[in-house]
Amino acid sequence: MPKGKSSRSGGRKYGDKASQKVEKAMHEKKRGTLRSGRSGKKVTSRKQAIAIGLSEARRAGGKVPSRGRSRGGRKK
Predict the structure, then answer these.
(1) Residue 41 half-sphere exposure, CB side, CA atoms within 13 Å?
(2) Domain ranges of the chain
(3) What is the mean pLDDT of the chain?
(4) Number of neighbours of residue 28 by Cβ within 10 angstroms
(5) H-type alpha helices, the chain
(6) Which of 10, 32, 34, 66 has its CA 20 to 30 A from that of 40?
């Protein structure tokens, strides 16, 4: 199977721009220079760094899947 191809959907889920942005965010986190949005606090979580990278890729028009239904609380 060629690199970057998944057998399920027949294509890549994330584009090159997304992987570049996430990689950049991870490097900034390692250096301790990655800051979160409004508060400007230092990011220490790996998951948060990935989320920031994906968010930047979305804004830049990269190929990134939508956030999905699980975001936010559900009320009964």
Answers:
(1) 5
(2) 16-59
(3) 82
(4) 16
(5) 16-31, 46-59
(6) 66
- In 3D space, the residue among 71, 33, 70, 69 whose CA is nearest the CA of residue 49 turns out to be 33
For the chain, counts of helices (H) and of strands (E):
2, 0
Q: What count of Cα atoms within 13 Å lies in the side-chain half-sphere of residue 70?
A: 1
Give the residue carrying structure tokens 């830049």.
60
3-state secondary structure (DSSP) of residue 74: coil
Q: Give yes or no for a contact between 43 and 63, defined as CB atoms under 8 angstroms apart.
A: no
Structure tokens at 31: 């250096």
**pLDDT of 69 strictly over 80:** no
**What residues have CB less than 8 Å from 43, skipping those under 6 apart?**
29, 34, 35, 36, 49, 52
The answer to pTM > 0.70 is: no
